[in-house]
Write a structure and sequence with these properties.
This protein has ten helices and 15 strands. By secondary structure, the chain is α+β, with helices and mostly antiparallel strands. It folds into three domains: 76 residues, Winged helix-like DNA-binding domain superfamily/Winged helix DNA-binding domain (Arc Repressor Mutant, subunit A); 97 residues, 2-Layer Sandwich (Phosphorylase Kinase, domain 1); 112 residues, Transferase(Phosphotransferase) domain 1 (Transferase(Phosphotransferase), domain 1, Orthogonal Bundle), CATH 1.10.510. Strands 4-5-6-8-7 form a five-stranded antiparallel sheet. A three-stranded antiparallel sheet has the order 1-3-2. It has a three-stranded antiparallel sheet with strand order 9-11-12, covered by helices on one side. Strand 2 and strand 3 form a beta hairpin. The longest helix has 20 residues. About 5% of the residues have low confidence.
């Protein structure tokens, strides 16, 4: 389910609906499905009003219902989305949604507007779209047995943390604005992933800019992306880059830091070699990124078969 369900439903929600969603969210720490009587009790609504609100939320596809072994409800992603959207609206960060910028395996990203009319992006993490086993293997920090909503919240917290570390150091990432639950509000994202470009203009310049940003993140913020590829580097209309998707970042103190840094660099070098016949030696690039080698000069990059 994409965040579009929540974006559409949110406009029709009333304060009592949001109260019910908040009660379910709070009680989900103790119940897989929250019993109806618990919802009635803590929402402070009478039985009739609570039933009406639960039916509405179910029709909006914001909650899931079970009737066995008792009548109970749980949030789905759309319901969780609505709570994050509401928090951003109340904080004066979000006014309206625009088009989706990307709907992937692990996140939905939407164009949005602030109350001042400034363009921003809202990213909703969606870890449950891939299997738990894959997520456990890919993300070492999802070891505790919690539900998908909380795993996605953890991913958002980690990504926001990374953006706040690297953005002030001048790394080309979206500006971090706010994080709530599994969602992040960030600066506008314009352009397309490197993987989507049929022909990258001035590829040597783009490759050097990417390596320069990996270096800046490493030397100035002590941060390694740890999942870098042509799918999370945006080439903007001005031919400059933006590096996105940071929930797997590690610091240079991580035991596998050097291995992950090398893999990031190799992924990028492999892409430019395959797509644009550009070659650069991994050890030279690694030395440059870690501050042990000279600046990358154009003669380190050359066309080859």
């Amino acid at each position: 389910m994409s965040a579009e369900t929540a974006v559409k439903a949110f406009k029709g929600l009333e304060s009592q609906d949001l109260r019910i969603l908040l009660v379910i969210e709070a009680a989900m720490t103790k119940h897989e499905f929250v019993p109806k009587e618990v919802i009635v009790k803590f929402s402070k609504l009478n039985q009739e009003e609570a039933t009406f609100r639960l039916d509405r939320l179910h029709k909006f596809r914001l909650i899931r219902e079970t009737k066995q072994p008792y009548l109970g409800y749980t949030l789905n992603y759309a319901g969780y989305d609505c709570l994050a959207i509401n928090a951003f609206v109340k904080a004066g960060i979000l006014e309206a949604f625009g088009k989706p910028l990307g709907v992937g395996k692990e996140a939905d990203v939407y164009e949005a507007l602030t109350p001042e009319g400034r363009r921003i992006a809202i990213k909703f993490h969606r870890l449950g779209r891939i299997s738990f086993r894959q997520t456990r293997i890919k993300r070492g920090w999802t070891t505790e047995d919690v539900n998908w909503l909380l795993r996605s919240r953890k991913a958002a917290e980690k990504e926001y943390e990374a953006l706040r570390l690297v953005y002030p150091k001048g790394v080309a990432v979206p500006k971090p604005m706010s994080q709530n639950r599994h969602a992040i509000a960030m600066g506008a994202i314009e352009g397309a992933e490197l993987a989507e470009w049929r022909e990258i203009p001035k590829p040597e310049k783009v490759l050097k800019e990417i390596l320069s940003n990996i270096r800046r993140a490493y030397l100035k913020a002590g941060v390694i992306h740890a999942d870098l590829s042509e799918y999370n580097i945006i080439l903007k209309p001005d031919n400059h880059i933006l590096i996105i998707d940071w929930p797997q970042y590690v610091t240079k103190k991580h035991p596998n830091a050097q291995q992950l840094l090398r893999r990031d660099i190799e992924n990028i070098i492999t892409f430019f070699k395959r797509k644009h016949l550009l070659k650069i030696r991994t050890d030279k690039a690694l030395a440059y990124v870690t501050g042990k080698g000279k600046c990358l000069q154009p003669n380190l990059l050359y066309k080859g078969g």
